[in-house]
Design brief:
The protein has 16 helices and 13 strands. It is an alpha/beta fold and about 425 residues long. The chain binds nicotinamide-adenine-dinucleotide.
Amino acid sequence: MVISIFGLGYVGCISLACLADMGFNVIGVDIVEEKVNLINSGKSTVVEEQVEELIEKNRNKIEATVNTELAFSRSDVSFICVPTPNENNGALDLSYLRNVISQIAQSIKLSQKFHTVVIRSTVPPGTNREMCSLIEQISSKKSGVDFGVVSNPEFLREGSAVKDFFNPPYTLIASESELALAALKQIYSHLNAEIIVSKLEVAEILKYVNNTFHALKISFANEIGNICNSLKIDSHELMDIFCKDEKLNISSAYLRPGFAYGGSCLPKDLSALCELSRRNYLRTPVIDSVSVSNGFQVSRAIKIVEQFKKRTIGFLGISFKTGTDDLRNSPLLDIVEYCLGKGYNVLVYDNNINLSLISGKNKEYLNSKLPHIQKLLSDSLLTVIQSSEILVIGNKNVEFEEIKLSQNKSILDLIRVPELENIPGYHGVNW
Ligand SMILES: NC(=O)c1ccc[n+]([C@@H]2O[C@H](COP(=O)([O-])OP(=O)(O)OC[C@H]3O[C@@H](n4cnc5c(N)ncnc54)[C@H](O)[C@@H]3O)[C@@H](O)[C@H]2O)c1
């Protein structure tokens, strides 16, 4: 299999060197002749550890050209590594990608063999489908039959790019074409990393999400560092210990989209940290905006409930999380309170809540928020289901997996019960 690589900048040059080292014949293409000449003379176009050695070592498998048609005709797979810079509004500019794809489409038009086009550049969701249509329009050929487009985001970091190329966390590919996917699986079978096949838009948006998370982590750590510094606490000692907790801190915990947080600890301690920051005249916008974001998630759920345009609402689970009767700062109570204020008929079922056993601060909070809870609570799940036009699922409970609904009812699921997803009237809060 011969691979052409369009764009010999950072991603393209590393890919060219590493794919050649994996045993493939590669043809690099760039509009900048100087870069083409560098590759043809065994040199790297970027400063990056090991790249030049790999290019020099594999010179018999590497060539470069400015001629798109030539590179296309000699290859079976084309990796697209052209820039996607920001436009003025922040969106990514796809003009380089459209240019190169249009050129490739002209070659596909004249070609008799199947060709795989791989988008390695970072692109917005929907780009794969757009590029398939563009190639079909220009070439009058059919996606999946004459060509296939694969989304295959690149995870390398500058400074450790070769190491990252050979040791990715996983390889992610997505395409509507099985033939194109098979070609990519064959290429990446040389790497010791899981190959994940996802939906197109998941593969496309993942890179945005990764990089946003990395940026968020840096800003979070910097704000924590600034607070520590003002209190004469060694921020590196703190974060070293913080990062050792791989159960809750550096883990997948708390990373499932869903509903707002609540309870007795998170809101309280977050407020206390914000106060420390203010008291020390610091600006910590990331930390300060966490509770704002949480409030928006409650508003989002309320908005969905209102869009159902029904008046009787049954809450299944109202404590702040599954498996507890702790109602303190439960954001579900905020929705219940809102609905009562707006004149909805409200029913509640929560098998963890026994009013005669609730005491102390928990009781105080409940009384202040919902003094008439006794009248809303039912101990029969069936009664609540049958009497409600809208059901809001707030906690996990195996009983909820069995829910059967008559027509014209709506479910708002805040935690994701997969067993219910196909019921007519089902809405996930963000899935
Ligand atoms: N740099 C990184 O660490 C990194 C990591 C992952 C993903 N990405 C993404 O990969 C893409 C490429 O990034 P980069 O840093 O390699 O960009 P770059 O600017 O270093 O290189 C892009 C190259 O494409 C060439 N080019 C432009 N139009 C062309 C055309 N029509 N035909 C052939 N070549 C053409 C340019 O001359 C340039 O050499 C971007 O979408 C970027 O977001 C970058």
